[in-house]
Automatic annotation (TrEMBL):
<keyword id="KW-0949">S-adenosyl-L-methionine</keyword>
<dbReference type="InterPro" id="IPR025835">
    <property type="entry name" value="Thiopurine_S-MeTrfase"/>
</dbReference>
<dbReference type="GO" id="GO:0005737">
    <property type="term" value="C:cytoplasm"/>
</dbReference>
<keyword id="KW-0963">Cytoplasm</keyword>
<comment type="similarity">
    <text>Belongs to the class I-like SAM-binding methyltransferase superfamily. TPMT family.</text>
</comment>
<dbReference type="GO" id="GO:0008119">
    <property type="term" value="F:thiopurine S-methyltransferase activity"/>
</dbReference>
<dbReference type="Pfam" id="PF05724">
    <property type="entry name" value="TPMT"/>
</dbReference>
<protein>
    <recommendedName>
        <fullName>thiopurine S-methyltransferase</fullName>
        <ecNumber>2.1.1.67</ecNumber>
    </recommendedName>
</protein>
<keyword id="KW-0808">Transferase</keyword>
<keyword id="KW-0489">Methyltransferase</keyword>
<dbReference type="GO" id="GO:0032259">
    <property type="term" value="P:methylation"/>
</dbReference>
<dbReference type="InterPro" id="IPR029063">
    <property type="entry name" value="SAM-dependent_MTases_sf"/>
</dbReference>
<dbReference type="InterPro" id="IPR008854">
    <property type="entry name" value="TPMT"/>
</dbReference>
Amino acid sequence: IGAQKDRVLTVEEWLQKWETGAAAFHKEQGHPLLQKYLDVLLNGRSGLRIFFPLCGKAVDMKRLADMGHSIIGVDVSEQALKEFFADQSLPYCEEPVPGISGAKKLQSTSGNICLYCCSIYDLSSAIVGKFDGVWDRGALVAVNPCDRQRYVSLMISLMEKNSSYLLVTVLYDPNKHKGPPFYVPESEVKSLFG
């Protein structure tokens, strides 16, 4: 993993991916792994608070909201968040986030989808509360390798005691691809999350 260890993508580089249509990680349909393991995430529970870290415009947010869950997401790309609401034909309101300079909260008028436009590291449980479930389908593999421990510590601080955390990673030879997505071997996932 040596070639990737020191790789750092800036916020500007991520925003450019959205602006230039190079967000190949976005899936127009719901993610098949969420469909396959949805029962693991929900664990027979209803009305959950589910967190989508680095959510982009994931269509699964609408699907889970339609099932009666409260969805909270975060992304640095205001474009992606606004495209989510437009693509799903959902009216929303926008307001600043107290305590986070320049951050915005975009909330569906129905109230069950709330998306924060800011750095994920600006969030805390004081701002967004705690979650019953996390759908991490591309966040851990997107954060800079040097920030993984910081990211996981934040995720753990946002989880209720009985939370379910679904994580998608990718397996490949990290010497042949500089990332993102970054290679996070299973051994590192286990050491990060315990």
